[in-house]
Amino acid sequence: MSFFFSFPIFKKRIKTKNPTKERAARAYDVRASAIFGVVAPFKDKHSLFSSFHRSRGVLSTERNDAVSGSTLFGLIHFQIPLMCLLQRPQQPPAAAVQLPQFSSELSRLRRRNLHHLPPVSAHRQVGRMFVAEKAGISIKSMVIKPPSHPTYDLQGVIKLALAEDAGGEGDVTSLATIPQEAEVEAHFLAKEDGVVAGIALAEMVFHEVDPTLKVEWSLKDGDSVHKGLKFGKVYGTAYSIIVAERVALNFMQRMSGIATLTKAMADAANPALILETRKTAPGLRLVDKWAVLIGGGRNHRLGLFDMVLIKDNHISAAGGVTNAIKAVDKYLEQKNLKMEVEVETRTLEEVHEVLNYASQTKTSLTRIMLDNMVVPLPYGDVDVSMLKEAVKLINGRFETEASGNVTLETVHKIGGTGVTYISSGALTHSVKALDISLKIDTELALQVGRRTKRA
User: In what residue span(s) does the Quinolinate phosphoribosyl transferase N-terminal domain sit (predicted)?
Assistant: First the structure.
């Protein structure tokens, strides 16, 4: 149970040359509210003012980085003259928010940090996110690092997923049913064959919920799993494990599904290299592309910023493929930029036009995309003769990328045409999650799994 007190700090009227402000200063007593152990930190004077007004008669449940009473007094004392001039007429005090009537220990668990998560920052450098010690990940578990992105905040994505699940209230079922401070051991169980991915990310989730949880793995990202295999365990406070369970599994199941399909496609496409596209789940760009790397694929551009990709709409707006490439060459020279440049071609005539321009002019072009040059045939077969002819025309002068009508059934035939890369949006936009569970009673889980043919 949290306690709420209000006491006077001092009572002072401020003299000012402005009669209106003088009257306002005389009209109100200055009082401060001290909330034991639940006062959030003040980042600037505006949050100080708002927190000061909110604290009058309203019980906050924030515990993050609590400010001591003496620190609060110092902050209020420093800001009080200005606050006297700025405060509005006092509103009737709001009713105190009552916490659920659990034991004091469960109330403490309810107010864990994960329930009050900060908003996702769009400006943190991702490089800082993947220092193993800071992220709470063992170096062994992160065998394949995520791609580097200048603004993506992976830790913020984890916090957002946890906050979405907690809804500001926490796991009410666990609070009601689990004995306080109960500790358990839960095992990760594969319920179908595939490639596991997201082990390092799951470890980040558990660490975010409760740094005291211990996670151990018998496999690493990119290893194969089979139905019924136990490949990791987490032990510690039962409440923390169950709160983190679904978010960790959601990441792992999606990433493992992407990695499983990527591995199958990459093996079939050999000697061509398999790429994903930007057709990723909103907010999960880095997660999806990380899974592709774990599955043995390569990353296409991360976004609009790290590579020039002249697509059909750019060509149409620029007035033709030659005009579009010319404009890119001029832009990169003016901005003194060095990056890969790819142009999409849809016909053999466009391929000829690109090659003609490149033979007469120094260009920044590095890759030619051969889009929809794989023609579907009945019964799932494809005609790749047009693609072969385009590759022959280019003759190694540029990298080539086949796109369109790429499936697990067609990718081997496409890879045999001599293209450098094969890109497939299906790797991420049509992913089927790999079935993975986390169980405390694994024997019963396996018994049920065998009955339902999932173990």
Answer: 171-256
Instruction: Give which of 143, 157, 112, 126 is closest to 248, Cα–Cα.
Output: 157
The letter for the amino acid at 132 is A
In terms of domains, do 444 and 423 share one? Answer: no
338-358 average pLDDT score: 98
pLDDT tops 80 at residue 33: no
In a domain, residue 103? The reply is: no
Structure confidence by residue, pLDDT tens digits, 182-222: 999 999 999 999 999 999 999 999 999 999 999 999 999 99
Please enumerate, as own/partner, the contacts of 378-384 that have beta carbons within 8 Å and a separation of 24 or more.
380/409, 380/410, 381/410, 382/410, 382/413, 382/414, 384/413, 384/414, 384/416, 384/417
For position 332, which CATH number holds? 3.20.20.70
The answer as to whether 409 is a domain residue is yes
Q: Does position 367 have pLDDT exceeding 90, yes or no? A: yes
- The catalytic site residues sit at 246, 279, 311, 342, 371
Tokens for 369, please give them: 């995309």
CA 10, distance to chain mean position in Å, is 48
Domain residues for the domain of 317 are 266-429
**One-character DSSP codes across 388-453:** HHHHHHHTTSSEEEEESS--TTTHHHHHTTT-SEEE-THHHHT-----EEEESSHHHHHHHHHHTT
Number of domains in the chain: 3
- Cα 54 to its chain centre, rounded Å, is 32
Do 240 and 193 belong to one domain? yes
Per DSSP bridges, beta strands 399-403 and 367-371 are parallel
Alpha-carbon distance 170 to 172, whole Å? 6
Residue 452 pLDDT class (50, 70, 90 cuts): confident
Residue 45, Cβ neighbours under 10 Å: how many? 14
Examine the domain organization and report whether 181 and 43 are in the same domain.
no
Full-model pTM: 0.71
Whether residues 167 and 64 fall in one domain: no
Residue 114, pLDDT above cutoff 70: no
Is the domain of 412 the same as that of 443?
Answer: no
Per-residue pLDDT band for 138 (boundaries 50, 70, 90) equals low
Q: Alpha-carbon distance 69 to 53, whole Å?
A: 17
Q: What is the DSSP string of 90-110?
A: PPPPPPPPPPPS--HHHHHHH
